[in-house]
Amino acid sequence: MVDLRNVSTVTEFILVGFEKSYPSTRTLLFTLFLALYGLAMAMNGLIIFITWTDPRLNSPMYFFLGHLSFLDVCFITTTIPQMLIHLVVKNHTVSFASCLIQMYLVFGVGVAECILLAFMAYDRYVAICQPLSYAQIMSRQVCVRLVGTSWFFGMINGIFLEYMSFRNPFCRGNHVENFFCEAPIVIALSCGDPLFSLKVIFADAIVVLLSPMVLIVTSYARILTSILGRASSSGRGKTFSTCASHLTVVVFFYTSAMFSYMNPRSTHGPDKDKPFSLLYTIITPMCNPII
Question: Transmembrane region positions (predicted)?
Fold first, then answer.
């Protein structure tokens, strides 16, 4: 047990990130990540511009796609610019408040994207299985409400997870073994009972990740049943090609998120955390527009 009266208040964290790498390696990583960040911003920005300005793309599928790109822009900007700065400067410290804000944005935007991907699967189900009622079911008003719901639950869930992450003072150092303030790593530095907070976040991840996944699996199971029962071979190919891109995005995003937040911390380590963190913070947002 830690005597909390003798615990010094942590006012900043040190993001270890890639500081142990050789200078030449950091230069290479900076060039690579800067290129990936610029590519992701350009492609997502282009999709946002096209889907929100071209009247020919005034359909629910493109409406959701534009908001998915907007979420990707928010998500990637939350972490990558800071990492790029830390690759070229020696000072890797971030204030307590900056870490708190960054973690909240990662939580909020990440959860919103999970829910939005589920709504996109539902949109595909209605379009393919109930085409005659599609315009009525997926009206503009309904689409706006679905997007608003994803943002609302993302922000509310972010407040809850933020409280669980910072409810205890910190007494196990301030070195974060990653390039951004990732919740499980930060919680492990806290006093009291960090295991309780980790269990709560694990349970929350099960609900947040698996609930939308159930909707996605159910939607595509019904789509598969429908097209196998009544579609021609050409119609099946068209349907599969339409849904394959969304499923690919789902697999990328959910696989990395599940590893980061639904695995026991004993199986984690800097060498294992960073690749998956890079996958869902920069690779997935960059690949979404391409897919």
Answer: 28-50, 62-89, 101-122, 142-160, 200-221, 242-262
Residue written as tokens 């004993």? 266
Query: 192: which 2 tokens?
Result: 């009291």
CA–CA dist 103, 94 (Å, integer)? 12
Residues whose CB falls within 8 Å of the CB of residue 222, separated by 6 or more in sequence, listed in order: 125, 129
pLDDT block averages, 10 residues each, the chain of length 291: 51 81 86 92 93 86 92 91 88 87 90 91 88 90 94 92 84 81 83 80 84 86 78 65 76 75 55 69 81 76
Q: Compute CA distances 147 → 237, 249, 256, whole Å.
A: 29, 18, 23
Nearest-10 Cα torsion for 265, 270, 275, 281: 80
Q: What is the spatial distance between Cα 98 and Cα 11, in angstroms, rounded to a whole number?
A: 10
Quick one: which of 22, 289, 2 has its CA closest to 168? 2
| Three-state SS letters, the chain | CCCHHHCCCCCEEEECCCCCCCHHHHHHHHHHHHHHHHHHHHHHHHHHHHHHHCHHHCCHHHHHHHHHHHHHHHHHHHHHHHHHHHHHCCCCEEEHHHHHHHHHHHHHHHHHHHHHHHHHHHHHHHHHHCHHHHHHHCCHHHHHHHHHHHHHHHHHHHHHHHHHHHCCCECCCCEECCCCCCHHHHHCCECCCHHHHHHHHHHHHHHHHHHHHHHHHHHHHHHHHHHHHHCCHHHHHHHHHHHHHHHHHHHHHHHHHHHHHCCCHHHCCHHHHHHHHHHHHHHHHHHHHHC
Residues 6+ apart with CB under 8 A from 192: 2, 4, 168, 169
